[in-house]
């Protein structure tokens, strides 16, 4: 069941979405409150930690930023496992990035194979709302899509101008925390533990990254 | 090179009362006024003093009316020392009450003290500057000798000299930038026989694609893939070495890099464009002309390690991860145990390092030095470099928690120097002349081969719990991280 009241929760969050929608920028804006045009392509997956207060409780967010190129998805399983919340990101000026949300979500559920996938928390972020004149996906359309996905929370954000970032991540943290405390045994069994070093096995918990 | 020596002799005689000369500031105060050069400026706004340093411009701001000024020194003579020269107003402007004798004397004294301090600082700076200049000159001379050796001795007799002791020693110290492109081309070779004709055809096709001209008979899916990869290349080129600014919109190399990657995607549609290729292609373009850069890039991408990663062949990638894990355990057992206890799997940092061959993680200079030996020794050197980085920061890493350690490895300190890194890699160069050395240590290639044999022995079987058990038994006797073993199961499960 839920962890001890004073134990600081570690929440694992994955950001997915097409290349160039601004996943790294969203993360940087949230963690460091800055935006740069000069960041490099993400290869594999990167992560960043941030402590924050959620409803009076201190939690540590471990946010995994992934490569956007589709073919890297096959490596995803290594990074998705143990996630408490999945953030889907698209670019409001790029309709393809919106169309690809379904495949990203499906692929995540297949690869991470969480228990009770219907209720696994996702949050949708529509980035680059500062570029209003180039807008290609309307808020209405995005909201309609969210309605079909068990009312996925949706935020229109701008990593560049820090619009709605904190609010969005508060919601993400809350969703992750709810998931984490409701079911700490999300990923109970790994397919098999290839324990080569049997003599030294110290603990039975291989739950990711703790 | 000759500029300091020619400037020096004329410097001292033409200097006025303030010089770098050690004796100058011991001169008596009374003597000074005689030697002062009194100048009147009718209009201080004139550009004649526009190139004087900050101090004078500040003064100019304060005293915009004419007054009596003295000029100390002559800036033109010794730019290295005389930069504190300024225009100093000796008396107050005529519309203000004059200073008392006492006040004037006090001001003069204060001024002399300030000047003296500035002089001392100048002399010190000048000494440092000369020393740095001499060091640089020495380094340049040494480099010129090394470049000559490469150009006149090694390159013309490549086949007979590239594997000599002398050449290997020189190579280890880093290739001079002037020969780097040539040596890389020779070391990588062209096993694929990529001809200029083929290259031109690929470039033409790439241009058509990049310009969005539709090819006939294309399926809808092919078109989607093509558009996706073209858009991906264009997006990534602008995110390649952003700090250099040359691959970005309007930069001189933007088109060259886009073209190379596009041409490669046409040449090898089975590989296509994969994120991180832009970093590798960019470095080749910085070292050689577009055609040889294409040849080098294509041949590098055809190496087993690169093929495994760029085609996302998970079982082959897994073999590399396991082999690296074993290698890491063999060479740095304490750090390996620490990482394993934290569940820090090697793939978390190795993926980034292998895909870009460190181009994203190390500075451009250091990356080139790593590539120098990588092209000579092959993929094994990339894993030695990885160990070198780990060894170099071992003490720090041993005190780090999971998240700090991952953050550190994913964003290495920017000040890692080539010499420092290579000192740390050198230790791993000694392991094994043959398959194993006296201490029973295995080379990376040996470990990789063993992992490959054991993993492929179960190849073709459906992976389930029992086969993973089998792998586990097959790998028995190999020390593998518990973290990695879980990952291994994950990776193989998805096959």
TrEMBL record, chain A:
Keyword set includes Cell division: no
Entries under SMART domains matching the protein: RAB, RAN, RAS, RHO
Cross-referenced Pfam families: Ras
A GO cellular component entry from the record: lysosome
Subcellular location: Late endosome membrane
InterPro entries registered for this protein in UniProt: P-loop_NTPase, Small_GTP-bd, Small_GTPase
UniProt-recorded Gene Ontology molecular function terms: GTP binding; GTPase activity
Gene3D superfamilies: P-loop containing nucleotide triphosphate hydrolases
Keywords tagged on the record: GTP-binding, Lipoprotein, Nucleotide-binding, Prenylation
GTP-binding found in the keyword field: yes
Biological process annotations from GO: endosome to lysosome transport; phagosome-lysosome fusion
Main location (coarse class): membrane
NCBIfam families (alphabetical): small_GTP
Similarity remark: Belongs to the small GTPase superfamily. Rab family.
Name of the protein this chain belongs to: Ras-related protein Rab-7a
UniProtKB/TrEMBL annotation, chain B:
InterPro entries hit by this protein: Rab-GAP-TBC_dom, Rab-GAP_TBC_sf, Rab_GAP_TBC_domain
Rab-GAP TBC domain sequence ranges: 174-378
UniProt GO cellular component terms: cytoplasmic vesicle; vacuole
Classification via Pfam families: RabGAP-TBC (PF00566)
GO biological process, alphabetically ordered: vesicle-mediated transport
Basic and acidic residues: compositionally biased ranges: 24-43
SUPFAM superfamilies: Ypt/Rab-GAP domain of gyp1p (SSF47923)
Chain residue ranges for the region called Disordered: 1-57
Extent of Low complexity compositional bias: 1-14
Gene3D superfamilies cross-referenced by the UniProt entry: putative rabgap domain of human tbc1 domain family member 14 like domains (1.10.8.270), Ypt/Rab-GAP domain of gyp1p, domain 1 (1.10.10.750), Ypt/Rab-GAP domain of gyp1p, domain 3 (1.10.472.80)
GO MF terms held by the record: GTPase activator activity; small GTPase binding
Source domain of life: Eukaryota
Keywords: Coiled coil
Keyword Acetylation: no
UniProt feature coiled coil, ranges: 111-142
Protein name: Rab-GAP TBC domain-containing protein
Natural source organism: Mesorhabditis spiculigera
């Amino acid at each position: 069941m839920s962890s001890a009241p004073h134990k600081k929760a570690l929440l694992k969050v994955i950001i997915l979405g097409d290349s160039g929608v601004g996943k790294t920028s969203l993360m940087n804006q949230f963690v460091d409150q800055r935006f740069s045009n000069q960041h490099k392509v993400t290869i594999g997956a990167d992560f960043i930690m941030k402590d924050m207060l959620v409803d009076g409780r201190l939690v540590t967010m471990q946010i995994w930023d992934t490569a956007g190129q589709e073919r890297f998805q096959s490596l995803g399983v290594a990074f998705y496992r143990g996630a408490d919340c999945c953030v889907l990101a698209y670019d409001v000026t790029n309709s393809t990035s919106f169309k690809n949300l379904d495949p990203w979500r499906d692929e995540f559920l297949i690869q991470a194979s969480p228990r009770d996938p219907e209720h696994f928390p996702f949050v949708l972020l529509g980035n680059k709302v500062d570029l209003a004149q180039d807008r290609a996906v309307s808020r209405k359309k995005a909201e309609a899509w969210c309605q079909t996905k068990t009312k996925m929370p949706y935020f229109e954000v701008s990593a560049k101008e820090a619009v709605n970032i904190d609010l969005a991540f508060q919601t993400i943290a809350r969703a992750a925390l709810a998931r984490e405390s409701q079911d700490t045994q999300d990923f109970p069994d790994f397919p098999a533990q290839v324990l080569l070093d049997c003599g030294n096995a110290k603990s039975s918990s291989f739950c990711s990254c703790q | 090179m000759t500029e300091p020596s020619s400037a020096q002799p004329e410097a001292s005689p033409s200097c006025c009362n303030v010089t770098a000369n050690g004796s100058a500031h011991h001169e008596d105060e009374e003597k000074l006024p005689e030697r002062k050069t009194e100048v009147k400026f009718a209009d201080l706004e004139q550009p004649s003093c526009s190139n004087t340093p900050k101090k004078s411009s500040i003064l100019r701001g304060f005293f915009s009316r004419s007054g009596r000024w003295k000029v100390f020194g002559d800036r033109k003579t010794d730019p290295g020392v005389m930069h504190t020269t300024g225009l100093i107003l000796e008396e107050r402007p005529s519309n203000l009450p004059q200073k008392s004798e006492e006040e004037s004397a006090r001001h003069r004294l204060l001024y002399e003290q300030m000047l003296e301090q500035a002089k001392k600082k100048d002399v010190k700076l000048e000494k440092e500057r000369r020393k740095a200049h001499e060091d640089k000159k020495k380094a340049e001379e040494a480099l010129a000798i090394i470049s000559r050796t490469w150009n006149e001795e090694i390159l013309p007799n490549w086949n007979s000299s590239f594997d000599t002791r002398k050449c290997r020693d020189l190579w280890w110290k880093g290739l001079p930038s002037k020969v780097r492109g040539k040596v890389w081309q020779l070391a990588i070779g062209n096993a694929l026989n990529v001809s200029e004709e083929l290259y031109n055809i690929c470039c033409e096709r790439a241009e058509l694609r990049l310009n969005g001209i539709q090819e006939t008979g294309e399926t809808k899916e092919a078109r989607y893939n093509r558009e996706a990869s073209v858009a991906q290349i264009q997006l990534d080129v602008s995110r390649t070495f952003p700090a250099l600014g040359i691959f970005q919109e309007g930069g001189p190399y933007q088109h060259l890099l886009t073209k190379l990657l596009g041409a490669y995607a046409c040449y090898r549609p089975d590989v296509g464009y994969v994120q991180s290729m832009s970093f590798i292609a960019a470095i080749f373009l910085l070292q050689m002309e577009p055609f040889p850069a294409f040849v080098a890039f294509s041949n590098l991408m055809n190496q087993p390690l690169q093929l495994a990663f760029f085609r996302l062949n998970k079982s082959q990638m897994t073999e590399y991860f396991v082999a690296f894990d074993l290698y890491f355990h063999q060479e740095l057992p304490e750090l390996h145990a620490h990482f394993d206890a934290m569940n820090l799997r090697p793939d978390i940092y190795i993926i980034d390092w292998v895909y870009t061959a460190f181009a994203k993680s190390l500075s451009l200079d250091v990356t080139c030095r790593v590539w120098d030996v990588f092209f000579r020794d092959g993929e094994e050197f990339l894993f030695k470099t990885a160990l070198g980085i780990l060894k170099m920061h071992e003490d720090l890493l041993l005190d780090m928690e999971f998240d700090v350690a991952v953050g550190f490895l994913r964003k290495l300190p920017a000040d890692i120097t080539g010499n420092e890194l290579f000192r740390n890699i050198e230790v791993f160069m000694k392991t094994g002349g043959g398959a194993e050395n006296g201490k029973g240590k295995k080379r990376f290639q040996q470990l990789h081969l063993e992992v490959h044999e054991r993993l492929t022995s179960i190849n073709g079987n459906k992976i389930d719990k029992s086969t993973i058990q089998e792998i586990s038994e097959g790998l028995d006797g190999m020390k593998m991280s518990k973290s990695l073993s879980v990952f291994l199961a994950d990776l193989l499960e998805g096959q």
